[in-house]
């Protein structure tokens, strides 16, 4: 019985050590969450700040990294906005406005 408890304790300690050394968990954007974000066309009457804020709110609630935020933002670009990204936007590390 004593041996069994020591074995369980050692196993628990090993599992805890593995969790600690594994590093943080990163939530990858799910397709359904990404699809829930409105597409951005780049029209003059569209609110770019609102688009970015929407992505930021979702990113915070989903636990995304900054790289995920940028990736999702790019995936939601269409028409003029996508053309801008292909020609110019890809050269920027962020979308500071």
TrEMBL record:
It comes from the Eukaryota. This is Uncharacterized protein. It comes from Daphnia magna. The lineage of its organism: Eukaryota, Metazoa, Ecdysozoa, Arthropoda, Crustacea.
